[in-house]
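Quick entry between incubations.
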Amino acid sequence: MKPLNPPVTNWSGKRIWLVGASSGIGAALAKRLLAAGAQVVISSRRIDQLTLVAEGHPNAHIVAFDVTQTEAWPQALSQVVEYLGVIDLVIMGAARYDPTHSWEIDLAQVEKSFDLNVVSMYRGLAFIVPALLAQGAGGIAMIASISAYTGLPRALIYGATKAALNNLAQTLYFELAPKGLAVYLINPGFVQTPMTAVNDFEMPGLMTPEQAAAAIMAGLEKGRFEIRFPGGFANLLRWLARLPDRVRFAMLHRLTKM
Ligand SMILES: NC(=O)c1ccc[n+]([C@@H]2O[C@H](COP(=O)([O-])OP(=O)(O)OC[C@H]3O[C@@H](n4cnc5c(N)ncnc54)[C@H](OP(=O)(O)O)[C@@H]3O)[C@@H](O)[C@H]2O)c1
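Done. Structure below.
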């Protein structure tokens, strides 16, 4: 079957903007893309961390900014265009995770999470989509999470933000693919990064950031719309999410021991 997006066949010279590149999955992905010969603009707030990621890579360029500041986006975009000329792919992965049970809602955390994980995606898209349409080509990849598939314990805020991105990516694909743009939805499982360091439970299928970066690149190379990993755990959760409510809730209680 024909892939939903054009497969990336050669990373050499690909012009990529990676937002959320200073640590974890983003940093590992930046290093892997740079090693494969791509031109990569790396963004996030911490310039010292971005400098470490770029070290030793002449094809890396840093544009530091805060994605929650709407006015920072057009400035960052023009710097990126100045550096890359044309953008082949924008990967957006800046996010936060505040593990929360249903009985401990902190509204400040809710607002911060939705503002960063969801609203900031729209802030970026508001400027990136017109720029890519004007180019007549290019791709947008959003990092969501497999926690989007179904309600999970402690994911009261995070899961809802990532479910929003799963829906958003589908509309983007539906509307932008016919106009010649690629849209990718990246749904990782558990990855050992600063974000998951707060988890005090055993994380099934835990991957290293390097394995996650390799899985993302493999998905892009196959031209997938949804890039989900690790295979076993991500597919299990997706299957569970499609079971009748009664069966799914019962199985999730058993699996999570909650
Ligand atoms: N780790 C997992 O198990 C897992 C699972 C599923 C999905 N994900 C998703 O994968 C992506 C990367 O997560 P990670 O685990 O690698 O976490 P991480 O190491 O905490 O990385 C988060 C990134 O977001 C950036 N960021 C945060 N706030 C920002 C802001 N206001 N402006 C600009 N950049 C900002 C951070 O950089 P600065 O602090 O320098 O700004 C950092 O580069 C996220 O979307 C996350 O939700 C992770």
